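Sequence in, structure out. First:
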Amino acid sequence: MLPHPSEVIRDAVDAEQVPILDLTAYLAGEAGARDQVAADLRYIQENLGFYYITHHGVSDELIERAFEKVAEFFSLPEEEKRKIIVNRHQLGFVPAKASIMKTELTDANTMADLNEGLSLMRERTPDDPKVVADVRFSGLNQWPDGVPGLRETLLAYHVEMEAAAKRLLPLYALALGKPADYFAPFFEDAHYYNRNSLYPAVENPEGHQALGAHTDHNFMALLPMSAEPGLMYATPSGDWCIAPHVSGAIVVNTGEFLKRWSNGRFLPTPHRVTVPKRDRYALTFHYSPSDETVADPLDTCIGPDNPRQFEPKTFIQHMTDYIDAVYVPQQEMMEC
């Protein structure tokens, strides 16, 4: 049985402020630390769904280098970036106004987003069985010319971010009343989606957001903090708040797939990005289980007061539904 959440976490969540999970003691293996962080995580996920992690084990230097290389990519001429235009696997360059973000697949948003993207997933080889079978979202990454070191830097970033996300899985399992290793088998071939973004400083956005209000499709998303503000999150009471800058922190947000898996117990927090005063960049790392994983509500999340809310659904089907709802058809994207 987990302990009570710590007072500092409870106070932050109850005030609808973004709480900070310091992972120092947990990663050091100190006695009782894992259960305490899991208890804190459970309170966050059931009441807010949005938090920071610090002392997470990801190199600050690598994150900074990744930001620099991504900025170099977006500074390329438009025609250079379009040489790797995004394809049906959602890999490549995503031009501005190519998405209309959704909050849990509703149609509340009607304005296209101003951001540009460079979408990457797990690096695969031509003989990879999923590449050969042309499984959606398992194609070959498209890498641009003209940005030396981009590929090496972002592949190193993927390794560290996947490791950081994997270190959180035992906490999620314990927080949901499962053994610490419960989620491990589902993430042996984890599906990750690195959406690198430019949110441009636009003088007259004409009602467009840099990134419209939405919830994520994934199990969880990890987002190293940008130096330029703009990220906002929705509170349970209905307000929108600016996510304050915390040096060296990574934002973690629950996705809709985990909401399904937890039968609505763990909340996906709507968030958005306002048009910044200076160009803003993001290195979002969406982390999810393998394609074949079925989100069938956990037995620990079903009871007389919380009957089953969702039917079983595979991750690959869930991601397909989400991407096809959010992004404009590829032909339109080629013409925009």
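Second:
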Amino acid sequence: MTEEGFTQVKIDHSGVQLNCLEWGDRSNPPMLLLHGLQDCARSWEIFAHSVADDYWVVALDSRGHGDGDHIPGHYSFVDYLSDVEVTISSLAMDNPILIGHSAGGRYAFSYAAQKKNEVRALVIVDIDPDSVNESSGSMFERYKNESDEWNTFEDVVDRLWSRQPLSSEEMVKFQAEVMTKLKPNGVWQWKRDRKLIYEYERPDLWSTWREVECPTVVIRGRQSTLLTHETAVKMREQLSQCKLAELEGGGHWFYQESPGAFESTVKWFLDTI
């Protein structure tokens, strides 16, 4: 699964170099993709290719991830939210569609809540507004206790497959390739700053969620243990313009586990707005 075909764009944010990838024509409607914790902009690459004929697609490497700057001490929720704002402003993305997975979803809907009438639509992938999430908490314990380095590429693949067992082998190998780098000593290293795990903030965002006014869809993989059915229903009920799509064939990383179903769901939603 070799995709690429993107253009790399660097944005200076008060001395912090943000890294973005873009696909498609800038004359098309803009779409900004925001990845989850420990992932990277290229994690979205398969989906980006699938919609690049119709949209100008931009994927942001969150600070401390992928090829963005590592800046310990500056990984607060406000910092990440400011990166979204600066990216949209710097690239002149007028009335963008925001698609966010996991932590990226929290930044996406928080931006939409602040910038009313400046976001065309919102796609939230498997994340809740809660301050505490038992499944998320167990993930963090694993992140803190595991190494950032693997002796072989196959070890990286096994690590990612353990978190998203319903993904194809092809997809997991692709994610392993784009999320790590091979060091001179032959060791594969995760392309993210370990310190961000300890600085990550998860504020209660229910009041923020209720401020969202643009058309919204929450997409949940039925096998997810992070966003529960009950919480997803509560999210839908608190926004009159919100739809809920619960789909078989994946869990928290549904957009990677069932990429065709995810693409179809996003296109269905966008056709309704």
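Remark: The chain has a mean pLDDT of 95.
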